[in-house]
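Support request from a user on the community tier.

User writes: "When I paste my structure tokens into the form, the page sometimes reloads and wipes my input. The last time it worked, I copied everything first. Here is what I submitted, just in case something in the input itself triggers the reload:"
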């Protein structure tokens, strides 16, 4: 059996497929995205005797390597057939990999870049509920988000959240370099969908960005916030040929904390986009950070964009 990810000849959207309804939703989301971008989809199922997809019968003996490989192949085939039954025309390439799912997804995403091949445009995973709180799809989603060097999309919501739905795209900005990358990525997503792009900056809470302005008036903080939004939009969209149509931009500034403001705006959005490695509330994916809170609690699909990513919906 060839355990290497299937090579592709165009940009690809990489999806973790584990046979669950959540990963099926992620695969459908990725297929719609690929159609809009002229890309392909790679559906990747990882398995090993230590880590096998939870959709595989739990009674299967974990030491039976051959049976696990067969079951994983059947699971992957079923996931692709279910996605194709939705009538989405994106080509879907199967990739069956023996190994841990986080490592397999990260390796598959980096392989084409290292070999000079077509880029991985995004890693897409599903999210699920756990009791009253939300969490990523097991530890896989969180591991991918923490370590991937390409955009990561965590799919949450119904199938009406796909391309063509009229709900807006929301992006959070904070004045950092990652804000421009996030705006560019989000603008391309909004252009693909033909929906407005809402650009949000929140100045509430104890934001170190304003540590030298604790006595400033609310009017001053609001003015500076609008300047941050304008700058992020300008840096994100200037010279961005991948945003092929004009996008309606809706600037929003808020006195709330960044996480609360973004979750509020995401309530009627189809996609929330947040950058990583910025100032203040949008830094990294540490426990309690804005990125982390958005991934846990946003009601819609959420994309995390690293600051070095400047290309389109990837």
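"...and here is what came back when it finally went through:"
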């Amino acid at each position: 059996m060839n355990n290497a990810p299937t090579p592709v000849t165009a940009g690809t959207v990489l999806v973790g497929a584990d046979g669950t309804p959540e990963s099926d939703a992620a695969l459908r989301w990725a297929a719609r995205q690929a159609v809009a971008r002229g890309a392909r989809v790679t559906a990747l199922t990882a398995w090993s005797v230590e880590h096998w997809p939870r959709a595989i019968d739990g009674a299967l003996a974990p030491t039976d390597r051959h049976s696990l490989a067969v079951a994983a192949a059947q699971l992957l085939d079923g996931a692709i057939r279910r996605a194709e039954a939705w009538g989405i025309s994106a080509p879907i390439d199967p990739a069956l990999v023996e190994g841990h799912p986080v490592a397999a997804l990260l390796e598959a995403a980096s392989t084409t870049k290292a070999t000079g091949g077509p880029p991985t445009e995004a890693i897409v995973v599903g999210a699920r509920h756990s009791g009253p709180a939300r969490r990523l799809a097991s530890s896989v989603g969180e591991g991918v988000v923490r370590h991937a060097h390409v955009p990561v999309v965590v799919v949450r919501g119904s199938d009406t959240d796909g391309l063509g739905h009229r709900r807006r795209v929301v992006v959070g900005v904070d004045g950092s370099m990652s804000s421009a990358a996030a705006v560019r990525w989000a603008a391309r997503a909004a252009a693909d969908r033909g929906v407005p792009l809402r650009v949000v900056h929140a100045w509430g809470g104890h934001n170190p960005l304003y540590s030298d302005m604790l006595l400033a008036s609310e009017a001053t903080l609001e003015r500076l916030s609008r300047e941050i939004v304008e700058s992020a939009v300008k840096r994100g969209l200037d010279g961005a040929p991948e945003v092929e149509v004009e996008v309606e931009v809706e600037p929003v500034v808020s006195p709330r904390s960044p996480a609360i403001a973004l979750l509020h705006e995401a309530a009627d959005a189809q996609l929330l986009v947040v950058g990583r490695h910025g100032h203040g509330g949008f830094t990294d994916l540490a426990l309690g950070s804005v990125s982390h809170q958005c991934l846990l609690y946003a009601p819609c699909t959420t994309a995390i964009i690293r600051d070095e990513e400047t290309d389109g919906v990837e």
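Agent notes: The reload is a front-end session timeout and is unrelated to the input. Residues 1-9, 278-283, 309-314 have pLDDT under 50 and may be disordered. The radius of gyration is 20 Å. Escalated to web team.
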